[in-house]
Amino acid sequence: MRSKLLPPAEAQPERPAPSDEELARRERAAAEAQAVLEDHSFYDAWKGEGRIRTVDEAEEVIAKGERELARIEKAVDDVRLHCYGKFLVNRCIDQAKRLSYEREREVRRLMMRAHDVVRTARNAELKAERAAEAAKPAPEPVTLPKPLLKKPSEPIEFVPRERKAPSEPVRVAPKTPKTPSEPLSIEPKTPKAPSEPLAIEPKTAESENAADERARLESENEAYYNAKQLEAKKRLDEAEATAAKRRAEREAKQKKFEESLKEREAAQKRYEERRKSQDSGLAQFF
Question: Where is the composition biased (Basic and acidic residues) (predicted)?
Answer without folding.
Answer: 151-166, 203-219, 246-278
